[in-house]
Amino acid sequence: MELLLSELVSRNRHWTNFGNVATYIPELKNANKDALGIVVVDIEGNIYKAGDYETKFTIQSISKPITLMLALMDYGPDHVFEKVGMEPTGDPFNSMRKLETINPSRPLNPMINAGAIAVASIIRGKDNEEKMDRILQLFRKISKNPNLNINENVYLSEKKTGDRNRAMAYFLRDVGIIEGDVEAILDLYFKQCSIEVTCEDIAHIGMFLANHGVIKETGEQYVPKNITQIVKTFMVTCGMYDASGEFAIQVGVPAKSGVGGGIMCAVPNRMGIGVVGPALDKKGNSIAGVKVLESLSKELALSIF
Ligand code: GLN
């Protein structure tokens, strides 16, 4: 397997020449555009690594399915889906245009920024510190990495420049989707996006989802199966933003990308995959990362469809 992964990284490395690192969060400019790495964790617990798998990057939107799990555990689907819908938008991840035109006025799904901010607004905790602790605790458990933490520079950079998210959050309070201190909610959202990870961390999270919320070693059902099912369904329909349809055809597995360059996949009952390639296409997905996943999916017949 490791040989295959190395071969796929070499075969697709030239794609890192295309696209660009995200710059709208100034600190993300420092990412290495040439990096391409992959880690696969299979159901037996074997770990396979290739390319620049040691590259660190911030999790960004890959955090959205995980905070969604926490909100679903805290409140159950009925309450969560009053705040956020279940439909793909066909719009960019940071778009605000449908927020005002749909009825009822609420974000269409929890994988776009507006939806994830609505989810962040209902995470339980007496203050932001406790809420962030709960988020980190879940991330650390399912990534099997007790040292996960936020990248302070990326967090501060986004907090300073995140006016589009700020605008959407204030709008969401105006229409009654979120309540309370908007800046505190945004702060939590910016922090969840700034958690620093490697491919291995997100591959473990993918494997956890692929294993229906059960921690393999202990057999513990850490997140209810129906919740992981909801989350994986969103990953298929909305996980790659407005490229989710094409990705479903070309790769065919539940996946979530982030503007840090990462992509996390959960191949049900088989494996979790973490990929990094910070050069992004116009929709915010890693170009080389998607290409490696396309190759891997064909080699191992991973499509769930
Ligand atoms: N923190 C980023 C934002 O809010 C996450 C976006 C992403 O990864 N697509 O813009």
UniProtKB/TrEMBL annotation:
One of its GO terms (biological process) is L-glutamine catabolic process. Keywords: Acetylation, Hydrolase. Pfam families: Glutaminase. Its EC number is 3.5.1.2. Substrate binds at residues 61, 113, 158, 165, 189, 241, 259. It catalyses: L-glutamine + H2O = L-glutamate + NH4(+). GO terms for molecular function: glutaminase activity. InterPro entries: Beta-lactam/transpept-like, Glutaminase. Belongs to the glutaminase family. Homotetramer. This is Glutaminase. It comes from Thermotalea metallivorans. The lineage of its organism: Bacteria, Bacillati, Bacillota, Clostridia, Peptostreptococcales. The gene is glsA2.
